[in-house]
Design goal:
Length: 113
């Protein structure tokens, strides 16, 4: 017994699915990045004097090979001191990541189902 199988449709379907999945993941990464930035700006532990530290908190995302990476950072030169000095009393980057990342993973699980 033999049968004929044309894999062209399967390969084309898988390629289309990969493109759609990457687009969905990129859109989700953008949403997570914006959520992290909003959370960081809303929950900063320091008192604004000039507003520059808050304004310069920024998020982004990018593809690194097949991995999507979401980033949150300070845009002021003294951001490193806010994060690591004074017993991390004024840190906002890691606390934001600790809060938002579990939510992001749960959302990612919903997308990948």
């Amino acid at each position: 017994m033999s049968f004929k199988f044309d894999a062209n449709k399967l390969i084309k379907g898988l390629a289309e699915r990969e493109i759609k999945s990457k687009a969905a993941l990129g859109l989700y990464a953008d949403t997570v990045a914006k959520k992290m930035e909003t959370h960081a700006k809303s929950n900063k532990p320091w008192v604004d004097r000039t507003g520059r530290a808050k304004q310069s908190l920024n998020s982004s995302w990018k593809w690194v090979g097949d991995v999507v990476r979401v980033e949150l950072s300070h845009g002021v030169h003294y951001g490193i001191y806010l994060e690591f000095c004074n017993e991390k009393k004024y840190a906002i980057i890691k606390p934001t990541i600790d809060i938002i990342s579990p939510q992001a993973i749960r959302g990612l699980n919903k997308i990948l189902k």
